[in-house]
């Protein structure tokens, strides 16, 4: 009888506790990881050298969507992060590039710049930022709304745009890195002062400690068989070195170069440490309600731009990242509990091969696409119309007309479009020139038409879009870039891991927009307001 009585009491206690816990059937913590410029193939290219507990564990125990693509044409950092967290496309969410020419304010604007707010913890240059240009809600906003703001959302990254846009409008804390101080900062849009845990983290002065070290190879040089030779002409060197080769003697560079955290693997180490500090400082995942940590790793993009995707530097960085990822997963297992957290890993875009790397291997490629086109177009318009002011900007492959100047000299928009199109099509590195106002009648492959339509927002898009040939790189004589509708830029990894995630691989077509829609379904909350994605059904079967 005593045992029966005890069991009854225990059952009553457990039932009562469950009744008070409305998220018992939800994850304690959602972790969104975006690896900036991570091509899908990096999961496999270096897999022979990855350990068993990083990328391989995610693939082995998680659900990998192998055919995930970006559904719009201009594949840049800001639209990518925004698309992941809104389930929307630039035509709706408003983030049409890292920068764009804004027809309403009649000037070029940065995606998160906001002169109405004040920096908190850092410089004016780095701190006047907010999500005010974002026109829809994020999945992180929707989680806050669904729990009457009881859920905490923390977003962090070295790049400002890579934390601000994922964090949405209602985050509990959004933080990014200030080059001038080496600290993580925020703005008055979010709060009046830094949380104590952020101040404590900044007081550890980790950037100074990291930058006392040289960047040395993780393995013997001979083992980097998946990469080009270290000393090649298509890579950029750091400002303080003569050649882009290992060992990179960062410890001997000019003092206080905190910006180096952006394009060395040490920046990833800093981000992992800051993510742990956020979990502990805000007790994420241990508060009886689902919390969300949005983390973006920016140095993968910086190193990729500088050295290109076939470099020893990129390979070494991913080998280091794999080890740190393994350590972070183990940390989550211990701190939050295995099976108690839901994690996804993806990327904001991919990257092209370096132009001279492609040429070396007889693959057609050129660099300085946009700059060369701009100069030649300006010369042409001056000779044709005797005007230097017929265009306002050439940005994100898009040409913005100056309608005031057109009216002044009596040039019709249709005629100007036709003249510019005919002129630009003579260049071998131009695939086509598209009239963005008339996409419906443009002679385009359906897939490209849809991607360009998803990109087009009249107030923030140009009159014409110049589609480069494959592997034509803007402004990069060395290293690489991204921003096109080609597969090397659009094909990204997407792995789900943890809470209620079954093991498997999915080769069906998945769009970046499907991530937030699927998260909403998993969490049983409203999808973001501009969401156009679909649920990844295979994850639920």
Which regions are unreliable across 5 or more consecutive residues at pLDDT < 50?
6-24
End-to-end C-alpha gap = 44 Å
Count of strand segments: 21
Q: For the largest sheet, list the strands in their spatial order.
A: 6-9-8-7-10-1-11-19-2-20
C-alpha geometry: globular
Helical fraction: 25-40%
CATH class of the largest domain: Alpha Beta
Q: Estimate what percentage of residues fall within beta strands.
A: 15-25%
Largest sheet: 10 strands, mixed
Number of helices: 20
Give the mean pLDDT. 93
How many domains would you count in the coordinates? 2
Write the CATH fold name of the largest domain.
Alkaline Phosphatase, subunit A
* Global Rg: 24 Å
Set down the secondary structure blueprint:
Blueprint: H1 2-19, E1 29-35, H2 42-45, H3 55-61, E2 63-65, E3 68-69, H4 77-86, H5 90-93, E4 99-102, E5 107-110, E6 119-120, H6 124-127, H7 139-146, E7 153-156, H8 161-167, E8 173-178, E9 183-187, H9 196-202, H10 206-210, H11 266-281, E10 291-297, H12 299-307, H13 312-337, E11 341-346, H14 355-360, E12 366-367, H15 369-385, E13 391-395, E14 398-401, H16 403-409, H17 413-424, E15 430-435, H18 446-455, E16 464-468, E17 472-473, H19 487-490, E18 491-492, E19 494-498, E20 504-506, E21 510-511, H20 514-523
Parallel strand pairs: 1-10, 1-11, 2-20, 3-21, 7-8, 7-10, 12-17
Antiparallel strand pairs: 2-19, 3-18, 4-5, 6-9, 8-9, 11-19, 13-14, 14-16, 15-16
């Amino acid at each position: 009888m005593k045992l029966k009585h005890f069991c009854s009491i225990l059952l009553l206690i457990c039932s009562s506790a469950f009744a008070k816990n409305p998220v018992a059937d939800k994850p304690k913590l959602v972790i969104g990881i975006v690896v900036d410029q991570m091509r899908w193939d990096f999961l496999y290219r270096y897999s022979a050298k990855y350990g068993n507990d990083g990328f391989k564990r995610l693939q082995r125990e998680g659900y990998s969507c192998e055919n995930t693509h970006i559904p719009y044409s201009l594949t840049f950092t800001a639209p990518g992060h925004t698309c992941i967290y809104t389930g929307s496309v630039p035509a709706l969410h408003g983030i049409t590039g890292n920068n764009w020419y804004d027809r309403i304010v009649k000037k070029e604007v940065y995606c998160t710049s906001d002169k109405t707010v004040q920096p908190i913890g850092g410089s004016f240059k780095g701190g006047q930022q907010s999500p005010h240009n974002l026109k829809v809600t994020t999945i992180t906003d929707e989680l806050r709304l669904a729990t009457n703001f009881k859920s905490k959302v923390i977003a962090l990254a070295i790049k400002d745009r890579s934390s601000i846009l994922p964090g949405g409008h209602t985050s509990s804390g959004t933080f990014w890195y200030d080059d001038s101080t080496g600290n993580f900062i925020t703005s008055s849009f979010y709060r009046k002062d830094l949380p104590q845990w952020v101040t404590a983290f900044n007081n550890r002065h980790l950037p100074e400690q990291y930058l006392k070290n040289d960047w040395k190879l993780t393995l013997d040089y001979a083992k980097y068989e998946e990469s080009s030779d270290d000393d090649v002409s298509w890579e950029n060197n750091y400002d303080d070195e003569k050649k882009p080769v290992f060992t990179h003697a960062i410890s001997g560079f000019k003092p206080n170069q905190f910006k180096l955290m952006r394009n060395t693997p040490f920046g990833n180490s800093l981000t992992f440490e800051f993510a742990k500090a956020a979990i502990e400082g805000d007790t994420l995942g241990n508060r009886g309600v689902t919390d969300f940590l949005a983390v973006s790793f920016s140095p993968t993009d910086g190193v990729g731009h500088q050295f290109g995707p076939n470099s020893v530097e990129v390979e070494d960085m991913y080998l280091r990242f794999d080890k740190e990822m393994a350590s972070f997963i183990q940390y989550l297992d211990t701190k939050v509990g295995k099976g108690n957290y839901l994690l996804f890993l993806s990327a904001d875009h991919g990257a092209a091969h370096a132009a001279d790397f492609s040429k070396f291997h007889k693959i057609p490629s050129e660099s300085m696409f946009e700059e060369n086109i701009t100069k030649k177009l300006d010369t042409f318009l001056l000779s044709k119309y005797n005007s230097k002011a017929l265009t306002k900007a050439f940005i994100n492959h898009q040409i913005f007309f100056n309608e005031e100047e057109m009216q002044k000299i009596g040039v019709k928009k249709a005629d100007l479009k036709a003249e510019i199109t005919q002129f630009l099509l003579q260049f071998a590195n131009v695939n086509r020139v598209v009239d963005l106002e008339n996409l419906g009648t443009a002679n385009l492959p359906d897939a490209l038409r849809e991607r360009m339509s998803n990109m087009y927002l009249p107030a923030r898009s140009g009159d014409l879009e110049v589609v480069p040939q494959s592997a034509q790189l803007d402004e990069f004589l060395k290293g690489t870039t991204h921003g096109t509708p080609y597969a090397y830029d659009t094909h990204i990894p997407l792995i789900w891991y943890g809470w209620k995630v079954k093991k498997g691989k999915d080769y069906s077509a998945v769009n970046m927009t499907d991530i937030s829609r699927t998260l909403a379904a998993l969490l049983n909350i409203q999808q973001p307001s501009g969401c156009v994605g679909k649920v990844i059904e295979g994850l639920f079967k």
